[in-house]
Structures are given as C-alpha cells and as structure tokens.
Amino acid sequence: MDVQPFLDRLKAESTAFRLLDSAAGLEQAMQEFRGTTPAAFVVPMSERGAEMRHTGDVDQELLQVFAVIQVVQPRPAPGVPGLVECRRQTRAALVGWEPEEELGEPVLFLGGELVDLKPGQLWWADEFFVKSYYRSTP
User: Fold this and answer.
1) Which helix (H) or strand (E) holds 6?
2) Which residues are paired to 43 by β-bridges?
3) Least packed by Cβ within 10 Å: which of 13, 38, 62, 82?
4) C-alpha 30: how far from its chain's center?
5) What are residue 128's DSSP bridge partners?
C-alpha cells in the first residue's frame, strides 16, 4: 500500500509534529526513532480487494486501513504539543479528505489505542480507513 499521499497530507496540514515519516510497521518505526518528539509515522495496516457485484472481478473496491503512530512525551514541556493536540491535528487533516477524488471516498477514523509507554515516550496508534476503486483494463 502506498502511504505517501497520507504522509503528504499530514505534512501539509499539521504543525504539531517535529518529525513525520512513514514506516513498514511498528517495529521499524520503533527501531528508527531517534527521540525527536512529537513524531508520527504513517504505517500500512491492511489492504483488501472486494468484487463489485454489478461489474464482477474486473472492477473492485479497494479497502485500505492505515495507522498514524504518534510519539509524544507523556508530560510535554509548555508549548510542545501533547497527545491530545497531535491526535486532534491528525484527525483534522485526514478525516473527510478524499485522496483520490475521481475514484475514492473520504478517509474515516476507526479508533486509537496505546501501543507502548517508555520513559519519556508515549506511543499511540490511530487507525483510519479509506475505500477507493480499482478498474482493470484487460
């Protein structure tokens, strides 16, 4: 799954993060993280194709789930965005936005959860869903 459009949207719409990047998964994000907070990583979670009843196998719905993993200080210094503000900006940038205006639908928020808590780092993942359409031209 190409997460670059979601990353680009966050970079354009959010001011909360000092670091915005993509990662293949949580493990990679945690290994490559160098301590700059607040930070966020856009991670692909799942992708499925679904047959469209009226057109068959050739045209499909493409169902994608991606996560924005946010890393913040549990108690940020004054003036540094905390988890609530980072999550607010992330949802404001993504929910309702249509990455593919011609063949897609708006991004929806699915939910969030605590991923990890380390000294000086709180890791939180918010998941989002987007549906688009794939048209094959055999």
Assistant:
1) helix 4-13
2) 67
3) 13
4) 16
5) 66, 109
Tell me the pTM.
Answer: 0.91
Q: What is the DSSP string of 74-136?
A: SSPPTTS--HHHHHHHHHHHHBT--SSTTTB--BEEEEEEEEEEETTEEEEEEEEEEEEEEE-
C-alpha closest to that of 2 among 32, 42, 41, 30: 42
Q: How many CA atoms does the CB half-sphere of 25 hold within 13 Å?
A: 2
pLDDT tens digits for 37-78?
999 999 999 999 887 777 655 788 899 999 999 999 998 889
Q: What pLDDT is recorded for position 137?
A: 67
Phi, psi dihedrals of residue 17, rounded to the nearest 5°? -100, 135
Residues facing 132 on adjacent strands: 62, 104
- Check the CA dihedral 114-86-8-60 and report its sign: positive
Q: Which helix (H) or strand (E) holds 30?
A: helix 26-32
CA-CA-CA-CA dihedral for 16, 28, 36, 111, to nearest 10: 30
